[in-house]
Design goal:
With 528 residues, the chain is α/β, with parallel strands linked by helices. 32% of the residues lie in helices and 25% in strands. The structure holds nicotinamide-adenine-dinucleotide and (2R)-2-hydroxypentanedioic acid. Belongs to the D-isomer specific 2-hydroxyacid dehydrogenase family.
């Protein structure tokens, strides 16, 4: 099998070597595609790699019939329609660490350029003017830098600002007093930060909550002569409000690497002498581009070949050590889900997945998603995967609950799945036996020992002498060979179940002879 990867933005050639070197992966670099051309071509690719230029819209994703993964060589994923990706079962991965240093250094370069009017002075000198009066700047030493968003880049900027002997005050919903103390900075609310800062730099993602968080009301609360830096995302600062605040003299200067609409070659802010700008260059260093391309290439190879990603954006990320521990249960969890879709009657309303034994020590979200995938796939088709399984269940009003329980029933690990419909509750439990692999060990209240694999027939019957023989003969008449058989019963002579593993796929009508037997109450074909 060969996977086709399309790279639609310029990426470091050294950085994509892991992709080029991977067996079974074909790399196609086409960095000049229009949106229409991309939509037309995307159908034949398994992976798409982008920076921030390519807009991966719902329209493009909906036409990407084979697409499994979108890799973003960088941090921000606002150029990718994440909801559409999740709905279509496409995992989105990014490279969150590779450009932190470059973006922080660029922010500091902008801060210093802003304070000393370096770009304006340079332009003036380029125009043959020796003007030493217009470009008088201010020192950073002793000034306060307000950092909004103390994540990877915000923290790095704060540390560098301290090196300039600035005071730093930060705000981030996750910044605790303890952490602020350790970093040697002050902390407060957004309002505290914007009120006291001489320079304000934003380092949040662009989200519903952060869009225009620096707006007219915020500018009104700032110190007169404040200077603003945005090397994060256009749109965090309301550009119209910034324009007015500069015109009114409230804001003395602004340094912008990013804009609400990019490319921004004809922006009114660029006409203001107080504004200095770069065309989204925060991550544009040789090192950052190589780092992010390497990281994202490795993740794409890993996902296409092993089904595991290190930096998923539309799935909770699970540390590699944990993934290694739970990976052996992936197959079992999906099979348990699939088993139940065959035996439960009616519309599924609730899925309860319980873990006991050693499984309780791990993050089991991926196993729950895999179980849900197994439950939905039979009716919704192969496009159901662990990326969209929870979304598709939620869309159908199915409640999914995850439990951890201490009842191991003597097994070192036990994964139990219960499915509720209006008319019934059905349960199946499985375990991983050391050296022997997965087993179904319980179906409803019956204990069994079944390898969850292949072609199966599930029979409900009355426990009485001769039933097993009659079942064998009925199947023999249809040339169906029994490979394994398990029976379970509630009481002697009571309700019982039989799980048969057979050698070939069985058509439902081949089982009519069985259904005609008086002792048989139900017969279901199961394909695992
Ligand atoms: N200019 C560039 O080329 C460039 C390069 C790299 C990253 N970026 C951008 O820089 C930004 C930061 O990147 P990062 O790697 O530090 O991300 P990060 O996820 O490490 O940090 C973002 C921080 O913002 C915080 N945050 C979220 N909502 C907030 C709010 N309402 N108020 C205050 N803080 C809030 C989060 O808690 C988080 O700590 C992103 O927008 C990213 O896309 C730009
Ligand atoms: O691809 C780029 O150069 C921009 C990257 C940057 O904005 C990011 O969010 O990582």
């Amino acid at each position: 099998m060969t996977y086709k990867v399309l790279i639609s933005d310029p990426l470091s050639e050294d950085g994509i070597q892991p992709l080029r070197a991977a067996e079974g992966i074909e790399v196609d670099v086409q960095t000049d595609l229009s949106a229409d051309e991309l939509a037309e071509k995307i159908g034949s690719y398994d992976a798409l790699l982008v920076r921030s230029q390519t807009k991966v819209t719902r329209d493009i994703i909906s036409q990407a019939k084979n697409l499994k993964i979108i890799g973003r060589a960088g941090v921000g994923v606002d150029n990718i329609d994440l909801s559409a990706a999740t709905e279509y079962g496409v995992i989105v991965v990014n490279a969150p660490d590779g450009n932190t240093n470059s973006a922080a250094e660029h922010t500091v370069a902008m801060l210093m350029s802003l304070a000393r009017n370096i770009p304006q002075a340079f332009l003036s000198l380029k125009n043959k003017k020796w003007d030493r009066k217009t470009h008088v700047g201010v020192e950073l030493k002793g000034k306060t830098l307000g950092v909004i968003g103390m994540g990877r880049i915000g923290v790095e900027v704060a540390m560098r600002a301290k090196g300039q002997r600035m005071k730093v005050i930060g705000y981030d919903p996750f910044l605790t007093k303890d952490r602020a103390e350790k970093l040697g900075i002050d902390y407060g609310t957004v309002e505290d930060v914007i009120k006291v800062a001489d320079f304000i730099t934003v380092h949040t993602p662009l989200l519903k909550e952060t869009k225009h968080m620096i707006n007219k009301a915020a500018f009104d609360k700032m110190k007169d002569g404040v200077q603003i830096i945005n090397c994060a995302r256009g749109g965090i600062i309301d550009e119209d409000a910034l324009y007015d605040a500069i015109k009114d003299g409230k804001v003395a200067g602004a340094a912008l690497d990013v804009f609400e609409e990019e490319p921004a070659t004809d922006h009114c802010l660029l006409d203001l002498p107080e504004v200095i700008a770069t065309p989204h260059l925060g991550a544009s260093t040789v090192e950052a581009q190589e780092n992010v391309a390497i990281d994202v290439s490795h993740d794409v190879v890993r996902y296409l070949t092993e089904g595991v990603a290190r930096n998923p954006v539309n799935l909770p990320s699970v540390p590699k050590e944990i993934l290694n521990k739970i990976e052996p249960y992936f197959n079992l969890s999906e099979k348990l889900g699939t088993f139940l879709t065959h035996v439960c009657e009616g519309v599924i309303e609730e899925i309860n997945v319980s873990y006991s034994g050693e499984l309780t020590e791990f993050e089991v979200g991926p196993l729950t998603r895999n179980t849900v995938k197994g439950l939905l796939k039979r009716h919704l088709g192969d496009h159901v995967n662990d990326v969209n399984a929870s979304y598709l269940a939620e869309k159908r009003g199915i409640e999914v609950n995850e439990h951890k329980s201490s009842q191991t029933k003597g097994f070192t690990n036990l994964l139990k799945v219960e499915v509720k419909t209006k008319s019934s509750t059905r349960t199946v439990a499985g375990t991983l036996l050391n050296g022997l692999g997965p087993r179904i060990v319980q179906v409803d209240n019956y204990s069994v020992d079944v390898i969850p694999d292949g072609h199966m027939i599930f029979v409900n019957h009355t426990d009485q002498p001769g039933v097993i023989g009659k079942v064998g003969s009925s199947l023999a008449e249809k040339n169906i060979n029994i490979a394994a058989m398990q029976v379970g019963r509630s009481d002697v002579g009571g309700e019982a179940i039989m799980i048969l593993t057979v050698d070939k796929h069985v058509e439902d009508e081949d089982l009519n002879l069985l259904r005609d037997l008086e002792e048989i109450h139900g017969v279901t074909v199961i394909e695992l």
